[in-house]
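Changelog-adjacent note: as of this version, every example in the card shows the full chain rather than a window. The one below runs 148 residues end to end.
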Amino acid sequence: MSTAPSRPVARPVPAVLAVVLRGEEVMLVRRANPPDQGLWGFPGGRMEMGESHLDAALRELHEETGIAADAPRLITVLDFIEHGGDGRLAHHFAMIAVLCRWRTGEGEAADDALETRWFGAAELAEVGPAASAQVLYLAQLARDMSAA
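Full-length structure tokens:
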């Protein structure tokens, strides 16, 4: 009886995005590392073992920006799937977007962030291709949720 070598099973990576509103502004970071290196997006990253998605969002927000927030709420979950030039799967993240209530902090780039900035709605609309996919969509969902 022969046994075939086992290959690691690829699975989506659960990660969080912390969507923080301060009045009409939303906090974005310019990513230091792939995927989305150099693009503006929400603070976030991979969840740690034993950590809830809500706790992970608050932790990632603080690690990348120094901002303290509370009252996290699920916005939605998005799949980010990228293929390499050869057509093979390069990345698959299940991104859990979490609305966080801003408490303190202006935002200082740390960890995986090159830069932080608060964007108003008009400024955010002008970011265009310099933003990660779904930034405008998630910002609008967050505004709608916070108004309800």
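Structural remarks: Strands lie at 13-22, 25-31, 40-41, 44-46, 68-83, 89-104, 113-119.
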